[in-house]
Amino acid sequence: MDFKQYLILDLETTGIDLFKDRIVKLTTISFSDETVSDTQIKSRLFNPKISISIEAEKIHGITDEDVKNEKEFKYYAKSLSDFFENSCIIGFGIYDFHIPILMSEFYRSGVYFDVSKIDIIDLKNVYEKLRPRNLLNALKEFCSVEVDSFDRKSNEKTESILELFLAQQTELSSKNINLNTIIYNDKNIKTLDKEGFFKISHNNDLVFAKGKYENQKITTVKQLHPDYIKWINDNEEISTMVKMILNYEK
Known about the structure:
- The protein is of the alpha/beta class.
- It is about 40% helix and about 15% strand.
- The chain folds into 2 domains: about 5-185, Ribonuclease H-like superfamily/Ribonuclease H (Nucleotidyltransferase, domain 5, 2-Layer Sandwich), CATH 3.30.420.10; about 185-250, no CATH class.
């Protein structure tokens, strides 16, 4: 795999609405190769300019008071987009939550986040291939770590995800499962989503990869066939990631 870096990514947010809620904390652990010999942790709080929901505050412990003097995400959007480019981003449940809400933040900031220039490893899906449970059970099963909850004001949860990645990597190797099979972004066809709806054309346009509008630009289909776009958005069997890419493209 040819990446600038691997990035463990974890987010804390104001809630779980991918379009309306905001990121209040972003933490990464970067390393250059699969030996994970040298890591760097970066963590930042953001002022979401909306109230953190009671439910979210109970989960991560971050309050409106904690972030009231922080800058908004938009002030860091361009540097974050550059930082993520050509990276393999690793997280737990990242495909259906972290990446879509991150794209939503970039969109509001007026910064184009090119998802074709990242790869994704969702450790939740790796875990489901091996043992279908949750993060706490994953740590117990793979790392022999038993915890009831995380101190989410610290970087404990993000560091735990790194530990889980290393342990799962060992078991994948023992079962002859190649890490490349876990990455969604196929370098040959440049598919952007695991369901295969979108790809990057030879002209670097975002186009449909399948269906009756195969190889047509998303922008063109939006203009000429709004009923098809509505069908995708209303279809509960199509993932949030697909809808985020569809609605993200201007």
